[in-house]
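thought: fold this chain, then report.
action: predict
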Amino acid sequence: YALALKGDNLFSFDFPATMGLVAGREGPGLEDIWPQQKRLSIPMQPGVESLNAAAAMDMALAVALASRYN
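observation:
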């Protein structure tokens, strides 16, 4: 799965038992080369363009790990 501006909501995603997670370049990301059905996004407030790629990955990994214990 890839972090992207448009994709399934990270916070409501049902994480599979095994998966990979990648972040693209800040700005364009991986949207032009990654399949739509394998994208996750972090919902943003209006006016916020994006997060730093490292911060977004940190959040995504924390959510994925937490989902294993809920």
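thought: worth noting. The chain has one helix and three strands.
final: tokens above.
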